[in-house]
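Hi C.,

You asked whether I'd gotten around to modeling the 88-residue construct. I have! Everything is below, sequence then structure, no commentary in between.
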Amino acid sequence: MLIENFIWDLQRYVNSNTTFEEEKVFVGSLFLVGHTKTWWRLRTEDFSRPPVTDWEGFTWEIRDQFHPANSGQVTQTAMRQLKHARSI
């Protein structure tokens, strides 16, 4: 969910600042930090892969790299472990 919220925030930012479509990837990449920034830098320097030039491709790449593959299972396990501890 953290990735989805991050992408949502980025989308709102680039839309609110009337960023041109071709600038969205550049502007969005400026907000990457830590491991995400390192990953993106290496991704853009990998000339064996086609460059990411559109917003849809950018967000897909981020989701593909950082969204846990088993997030549904993790969520279901966490929900099963919830217990009602006090009266309402």
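If it helps when you're writing up: Residues 6 and 49 are 25 Å apart (CA to CA).

Thanks,
B.
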